């Protein structure tokens, strides 16, 4: 089994409070791995430690076996670790096509100024078209992003993260705020991404988690509380007690 992303004895203290308590997590290559746990369990803190938004008090983060614990966030992106955010960070005036061309151009190191000539670049345009199609954004690729239905905006965020060609994609509640009928579409598209992209998902909606994940880790009070397949976790009495019981 190849491990894509790993933490070793990861600890994050805020003052005397331990938000992350000795977490050793292993995410295998190609996994659809969900991170669940009750409010305040430390899911967002853990994701922030993985991306480099927070520095751990102790412990290590490894990407593809390499220690990235002390690398800044943007360098981690360059190494293949991408994330999307809960908050909407899209440029509202840009169309999905424009945003996609820009994201691909940035990845290729063209930057802002090369944007116009880039629009004539066949390879970039082809890749943008493919990604927009995969994320079911072709019909709306010329519409300013601010005018898109929310589910489409979330899909665009994920598509833009994929344009950076990540090895590991971290998704923090990608379906939050998306109407019920569009939620499953968002995650089924992510699920069907090629296996060279490993996905780690934080999600509160257990229906979505169970239909998406092939592996689930449960956090509680900062610690890794349980880990297993969907079947194992959905049947686990202790998990039900601390987590599923909340919704019941
Ligand atoms: N910067 C901070 N300073 C102090 N305490 C913090 C800080 N960030 C998070 N915490 C605390 O750490 C704990 C874990 O928070 P975190 O946001 O990681 O949980 P979570 O599992 O993502 O919760 P939720 O599901 O509600 O988003 C909480 O008790 C929170 O109050």
TrEMBL record:
One of its GO terms (cellular component) is plasma membrane. Residues 5-246 form the ABC transporter domain. SUPFAM superfamilies: P-loop containing nucleoside triphosphate hydrolases. It comes from the Bacteria. One of its GO terms (molecular function) is ATP binding. InterPro entries: AAA+_ATPase, ABC_AA/LPS_Transport, ABC_transporter-like_ATP-bd, P-loop_NTPase. Keywords: ATP-binding, Nucleotide-binding, Transport. This is ABC transporter domain-containing protein. It comes from Ciceribacter selenitireducens ATCC BAA-1503.
